[in-house]
Amino acid sequence: MAVPVEQRPVNELGQLQTGVLYSWATLDLQSYVLRLATIWALVFALIGGPIAYQTFDPFREPAEFFLSGSTGALLVVAVAVLRIYLGWAYVGNRLLSASVEYEETGWYDGQLFVKPPEVLARDRLLGSYTVKPVLNRLKTTLLASGGGLLLSAILLVGLITSGSDADGVYGRGAARAPRAVMTDGVLYSDKVKDLSALRSDDEAAAAEAAAQGGIPGYCGDRYFKAFAGGQYCAKFEGRPAGRK
């Protein structure tokens, strides 16, 4: 009995070559990269970036914001490429195989078709010279995506680990680190050398107030926060300095 037209490997290959997503693998390199870059950019702008913004301020922590958002976007690209790869690998295996399974009318009546010599020779030529180059390109893309994901994750973890506050918190929820901690208080502004200057120098007082960004200075030090009670600092947790 003849294999249904849509289940013949050569026709399945044609469906891949004209498919909306699967056909990307056959494009020239520039068009192929452009489409993957478009997926990355859309996911970053619509999903990855907004999620990363909840944790990292892009103005104060641009590297962390970019790495966090781009990691999620790159993961979506990798999943899309994997889906394309699996489709091409499936058809490639059917082209190279001497026999193929097919269904006459449904899943319950599967049959096995042994290819005549001329059909087998044609299919194996298509599998070797049409499908394998595509699979090689997709494998390279998957390796590059995996390497990019690993590198982004390592860099992001390194930045977070090295910049976490005393409570292990990083990003918008982290406590601001004072520039100097003294026995009688803390300083944030690099324009102020001593706490006593705040009592006699209006410019120094203004600079320190700007550096604190409307958040009490003692909130940035665990000792002084505990000494002051700290209950007033709770309203500022998760808010970057300067935001009202």
UniProtKB/TrEMBL annotation:
Compartment list = Plastid
May I ask which residue range the UniProt record assigns to the signal sequence? none
Superkingdom field: Eukaryota
Ranges annotated as spanning the membrane: 32-53, 65-86, 142-162
What InterPro entries does the database record attribute to this sequence?
CGLD27-like
The record's GO CC annotations read: plastid
Q: What is this protein called?
A: DUF1230 domain-containing protein
